[in-house]
């Protein structure tokens, strides 16, 4: 049994409580990166995303100041998230069995062709003492940028640590020319259409936080396994009591999201998942559950650090 494929990362990130949304007719087509024109639906989604944060016009949304509004009761803004430095530790379990661990953290800021980006790292290690799993260690890297409404990927790559194959899989997102270039072990495998801001996997963790606690329906394009899939997410403004090992002794509530991923994942993942976010200003991803062959796999937050 393998812990994950490149597509499996997404499932486990989904599991980790990440993101999800809607319909192709209501597609999450937020405004693109600088110089990216895309299709006309981009401006429609910009307005929708702005509405989720109480903004009343496109021009107001375009001029987000980055100032934190302590009185705002809705989900975080783009500027709230882009200024955060966080580290997440998740545990992956199937029933009583611990399958592995996931660490997510942000490294230094960088520039990609003049665009400011954040280096996001997701490290996944299997519990090699568990039966049938063995040692697997995968590191996923994303150069993540923000426009005025959402985060998106500039580059995504996958280091296979246990097989000593760095940059085994790579996606380069060329928004200017409208293509995503897919590589495996240095060889160009495919050139895919890129019509709006997209991701190679982990950025969806941040994207989904923008809508947690709302009643939005979203769809976000994700490029994995040399192809494109869409994450369909239905958020809810209803909340429920929640306890977390990452916040011992604290009583709080969590918002839920339900969704479907149209790709094959590890452990017989069936495509449906549920995620939970803390009802705080930053909508911290707490947990995700995904249906597998029998029962479900759970990814739960066990430690959270905010680096000031």
Describe the protein's architecture and organization.
This is DUF3108 domain-containing protein. Helices cover 12% and strands 45% of the residues. It is mainly β and 308 residues long. It has one domain (6-58, 73-306). A 14-stranded antiparallel beta sheet has the order 8-7-6-5-4-3-2-1-14-13-12-11-10-9. It is globular. 45% of the residues are buried.
List the helices and strands and how they pair.
Layout: H1 6-15, H2 41-52, H3 58-62, H4 78-82, E1 86-94, E2 97-112, E3 115-126, E4 137-146, E5 151-160, E6 165-174, E7 179-184, E8 187-193, H5 204-209, E9 217-224, E10 227-242, E11 252-261, E12 272-278, E13 285-291, E14 296-306
Antiparallel strand pairs: 1-2, 1-14, 2-3, 3-4, 4-5, 5-6, 6-7, 7-8, 9-10, 10-11, 11-12, 12-13, 13-14
Main attributes of the structure:
single chain, 308 residues, mainly beta, 14-stranded antiparallel β-sheet, 5 helices, 12% helix, 45% strand, globular, disordered N terminus
Instruction: List SSEs in N-to-C order.
Output: HHHHEEEEEEEEHEEEEEE
Pairing-aware structural class of the strands and helices? mainly beta
Percent range for helical residues?
10-25%
Number of domain modules: 1
Beta-strand residue fraction: over 45%
How far the N terminus sits from the C terminus, by CA atoms, comes to: 39 Å
List the total number of helices: 5
Q: From the structure provided, what is the oligomeric state, counting identical versus distinct chains? A: single chain
Mean pLDDT: 78
Shape: globular
Give the uncertain stretches in residue-range form. Answer: 1-72
Indicate the radius of gyration in whole angstroms: 18 Å
Strand arrangement in the largest pleated sheet:
8-7-6-5-4-3-2-1-14-13-12-11-10-9
Largest beta-sheet characterization: 14 strands, antiparallel
Protein name: DUF3108 domain-containing protein
Region (Disordered): 29-80
Biased composition (Acidic residues): 59-70
Pfam families: DUF3108
